[in-house]
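Cross-posting from the modeling subforum.

Setting up a comparison between two proteins and wanted a second pair of eyes on the formatting. Protein 1 (sequence, then structure tokens):
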Amino acid sequence: MKVANSVRLLLFLASFAAAASLVACKQTYIVYMNAAHKSAAHVTHAEWYEAHLESLSIDPARHLLYAYSTAVHGFAAVLLPEHVELLRRHPAVLNVHPDPLIPLHTTRSPHFLGLSPWPPVSVNRRYSIDPVAAATDVIIGVLDTGVWPESPSFSDDGLPAVPSRWRGACEAGVDFPSSLCNRKLIGARSFHRGYHAAVATAGDDSDIPRQEYASPRDRDGHGTHTASTAAGAPVANASLLGYASGVARGMAPGARVAAYKVCWSNGCYGSDILAGIDKAIEDGVNILSLSLGGGSAPFSRDPVAVGAFSAMQRGIFVSCSAGNSGPTRSSLTNTAPWIATVGASTLDRDFPAYVQLGNGERHAGVSLYSGEGLDNQMVPMVYGKGTQVGSNSSKFCMSGTLDPNEVKGKVVFCDRGINARVEKGQVVKEAGGVGMILANAAVNGEELVADSHLLPTVAVGAKTGDLIRAYLRSSSSPTAMLSFRGTVLGVQPSPVVAAFSSRGPNMMVPHLLKPDLIGPGVNILAGWSASIGPTGLAKDNRRSAFNIMSGTSMSCPHISGVAALLKAAHPDWSTSAIKSALMTTAYTEDNTGSPLLDAAGGSAATPWAFGSGHVDPQKALSPGLIYDITTEDYVAFLCSLDYSVDHIQAISKSPSNNCTRRLTNPGNLNYPSFSVVFGRKSRRYVKYNRELTNVGLPSSVYNVKVIGPPSVKVSVKPTKLVFNQVGQKLRYKVTFASTKVGDPVDTAFGWIIWSNEQHQVRSPISFRWQLL
């Protein structure tokens, strides 16, 4: 009997192990199909995908997650390794890749950007209509963590009826009745099958975790913040617990918002993102804003790039964040040329706080702490007082590392890094500390990002941190006072490129300069979810209708909103025309008249950090000339990258494209910027062609000016462009000749500027010398 039981137990364990192994082998894949193989017997693409899976003995009911109809020809499915091999061998399949996990990456910014007040006070004479008012017909689709519809930023007071062309929906879900949408928030959808499949195949048999909403409702706050930054309604007396008070509004307060929830507790899955883009295109959005992005990958394996290509084909402008991995070189994401890649900069607003040390030194920092300060008496300070002798983890104030006996009643000095900034404050508070000084690491430099900490906290730069550490080492009983001074405006210099903003050069396509431009992304006030405190920590019980956040996630919707204004003013412009206008009119001097600085070190910034410069909405409305790019141009660009025909067809959805046309060099795309790569011994000459379209006065004459390094001779032919009518196109050629044998680490920058009395059309140039 015992033997039989043992055998049964062994059989059970074996079957359990086999089942567990099967689950572990399962994974979600995105499959791109060649539409030329679609049979006429299948009315819809979904029917074709299902029949295709059935022909391979794959049950669509169990495996198929999404059947895409617009963004791509293809589907997402949970598959076993043998399924993947069958698919890859089938002639109808163009590409198969795993479903990637992609991370998520205001009262002052409209004024700082020079935007007109809302409601409009005058008519724009240049266009006969006010572009801000006209933006009521523009729809911005935001792919993020959802939306908090009760936020005052989504009030529809004064807005006319929803545009009749809108085909979207307000999907009901958990704690989200469809009645919550209105004339401002006109649509809301949720996409979680990719997320759910990842949880299930990871061995978790639960559905979406309880803390998540299986609906468009935003529990995280990120999506509400980005959506309200792009197109939030004006809200008087907005602030974060008293900080940054004023009238909060989005960049395009008249535009409509459609929220697509594609991001969940552990990030955003490519299959969900593609489904969101697929539906947004069908719904009829004009602008897509995606404050998310993964690492560098070929465009054919990047769902954001593939979906954005389809959006571009339908005249939808796509804005994406560049990433928060700066100041590391080549840390960019979302580098496809049909995407506007946006870096981050500071505003002229700050939240000063001060550290007074026992030796009399006073150091400046920043903070959004809103409670009682520590400015009445000196408090003892500690640093590195941990529970484990010899461990440095306590210096980072990581969970469980601080010794309460050493910390209680004291100000704790913490190094930035490893864990979240606000989490460090919670660790200090739980250990009995009464305050915190948070010091930047060398990589963060002197850039100060303010947080709404749970206890009195002052964030200081790396150099200040070194001075405070020296004091801590030299004093046997160090003390400090912390004080907070609220909000100040008119900070100089500003804007400054954020240290965290991801940088070039572009490793995916070295001949394409990215990012494209920068916009406000540091300490931005915008709408927030009422289900979470401003720190995002579970133990933060404070609630605010607004929050202050930093990241390229915040700069991206600024550009999305400004693009909506341009779309309203120029409804016939292509997506590349809008991006060209934003780029060629961007500025590169701060409010002191000096070149833009880089917060990562304080030296002058370069186009690898700011692209074409900082967005200037007013000038972008009238750029004079634009660089236009067609879908066929983008396909020729892809062909010049030596992608396989299948991969190009997967991106372009053209079943017959065989690269009959390709660019001689990827840098020959008619882009508003230049990236020149010289070989060390060969390729000392690089030639590019460009074409400019007149969108200014009918009779316009432009002369060229070249700014470049001594090591490169730049020749432009012709040097004068004479336009006789609006819409006329004229070409020019540029020859870049290196006058030296470069080193692989050598870099330099320059500008090509076409100008007349009314306009300056500026294009940055980056130069690199490398072994080829």
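Protein 2 (same layout):
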Amino acid sequence: MKLRRFFDKRTWPLWISFWLPLLIMTGYFIYRHMAPFGSSSLLTVDLGQQYVDLFAYFRHTLLHDPSALFYSFSKTIGGEMVGVWAYYLMSPFNLIYLFFPGQSITTGIFIVTVLKYGFAGLSFAWLLTKTHTQKGWLVPTFSTAYALMGWMVANQLNMIWLDTVAILPLVILGLERLFTTGKVRYFAGWLAVMLIDNYYMGYMVVLFSCLYWLYGATKYWQDFKTMIKHALKFAWGGLLAAALSAWLLLPTFWALIQSKAQYNETKIHWKLEYAPWKMLAKFVTGTFNFDQMPSGQPNFYVAWFAIFAFILFFLRRRFKWTVKLSALLVTGFILLSFCYEPLDLLWHADQFPVWYPYRFSFVFCFWIVWLGAQAMADKITIKLWQALTMLALTVGLFTTVYLNIKKVSYVTQANLLITIALAALTLIFLTLPKQRRLIYQIVALILVATDMSINVVASLNNISYVSQSEFGKYTTALDNAVNKIKANGKGFYRIGKTFTRTKDDPMQAAYNGADHFSSTFESIIPNFFGSIGQPDGDGVVAYTNGTMITDSLLDMQYFMDKKVPTSQNDNTNYRSYIPVTSTKKDLTNYQKSNKLSTSKVTTYKNPYALGLGFAASDKITKLKVSKTTGDPIARQELIYQTLANRSTSSLISAENFNEVVFQNVKKVTTLTGAVLNKENLSKTGSIYFKFTPTTNDSYYITLGANLTTSNASFYINGKELKQYPTYRHTIAVNVASNSKGKTVTFGIQMKKTSLWLQNFTLYKLDNSQFKTSAKKLQQAPWNISAHSNRKITGTINIKHNHQVLMTTIPYSKGWHATVDGKSVATKKVINTFVAVPLSKGKHTVTLTYRPPFLVTGSIITGVSAIGTIGWFVIRRRRRNHAN
């Protein structure tokens, strides 16, 4: 009986609304051979370069290391994690990943993706049925148009946002109930869920809720007094939602101040971003491709059945003119937001998106389908004058797109013709008289499902994906190498490597590394990494250019290096899934460990690593290091020698090349800062810089930000330089070590007619002096006796006055220190790291991380939840007494 009630005449539209979009997407993914149904995977762009590793971190944290909930040393050299969880990992769907370890996580991603499509349809169907807007077969008709909207298809690779499409209808249902029943709890509750699930998309839902309230105020207008009452309840509901999610929002807000908020726009341009007519092209099916990801127009394609229904909303007499006017104003505001810079910035919280523009276009899709569903609440046949109006608008749209098709490269003539056919069939269907309502509703569903399926295929066929084999082999190779180190490594240590699949490899394999990529990345780390010659960007660092100095300072105790394949065939396959991104001749100075190596990776032990903390001169607390001027090698020397209190001893020296050969390039006498020009513009220009080391010391060449692979190709002794391709500051390339008497040739092949040798200098590291400084700094280590991601305890013996415990833990107000059981204030040194002042003698030092504002936010949430529950209990008792 219970099962029958579960599948009865009231619930079957909900089930179809869930299963139809899910099966359509499953069928398409099977057709594309996505794992587990083939050799491909859903991994592409950010999903393959960022999210998949964070999902692996999510799994490891919940199953193996809960201490990483608030802080993780897998996030570069250490970073807070509340912001990462709030933006990337709070979706309840992520629990599915617990059942998919290692390379099988791609199967989990497949399941989660299709489920999100299904729940988007179910959620919209729930809104339609609970508001009595639609019933029967038209429920899945509109729900399918919503679940497979253009925004959903274009952003499925940003699957962290997809929950929003399932939660938005429930927030709107809460608003509808606020107007019809006066109850706030549904709106507040679902808005709180939205803010907890993803605060970023939740912010957009809040803005849209404000617009929707204006529409609802006219739709449910009674009198001015009632409107004020509704406004106050709406405001109260929003505040209650914020309070219920304060436990997460407050620490996240603090994290954003340290990271994303650092890049807010300071100047607004009051202008249109592009010609608004280009938006019309997005009503054509399949108008999404790779080029639309970094920049383009908003993706809001929905079935033409829903578009015509949306137009019908403004043509039907059953809606009051005030309601139509408010709906038109909301529509106009959203459309203007798609092309007017100040409004675009408003929706994106004062930051232009890095890729994936107009991320809020899902609200327009919802708006179109929701108004359309209301317009066809009583019948799906339209009058002749309404059909002619729709025809005129459609002809105008398609004519505009056709006449300007060369200006919208994402529109093909084939897709334009297909869309015209779909629109024509839909319009003819709507004008036909319909006596048997059931049959025509089923036809409408088939029409919409076909329309949206065509858009799925036409859009996603433009996108390429990472093969399952490539991802699986790399993941297995990395996991095996890391697990060997973990089985033998003791205490706290960091691991570096010369190869990279993504900057979040440390999170995927759960080790302490130095790379990272996320939107909630504290700015102090990219700033520091950029200053010492590592590739960095807003929200990203790649530790690919470490010198012996930085390897020592940052406690890179182990290094993983890709083994050279034994055959050419192996090398071809190997290169595709283990890409080398670092040239590191210094590995010859480290200890090769056969015990820790695997069949794919050779592991080295660094004897000069200083540990996570060590005694250092307190002069470091007063050292001011410029972020923008000076050379990264010189900056490394200054920091290291100040720590060792050996500022009078030089570690580095600038060296001259023995010979410079210019081929089809005009000769220059001074290299650093010179601009090289080709002699014959039609031929290749090359320069070869030769030197013969007189010692076995380490040699580095610095390359300015202009010297990237887009401007030139680089070679060492005829072999292509292995280097992470993008960087915005000067980097240091390790070109020689233990090469005494061997000629080293650094070649540059120009790709353009001229080339600026920005910050191009050859340096030699005095390895003997470096080892002396390293040995001095290793004399008084912080001997860690217990450590987790958020609490570290150890002893240290300060042998001299004027010393501090220097750590390479990134500074944060969340770190709290106790020395011999007493609280001590920490210091921020080099504008990057935590240091603890200590007196001479032996001390026990404990560092504990507590996310700032987590306690405050939790108190606010607790009080709000208890107060809300208490209010309902009191009201119920009063009601019972009254009865």
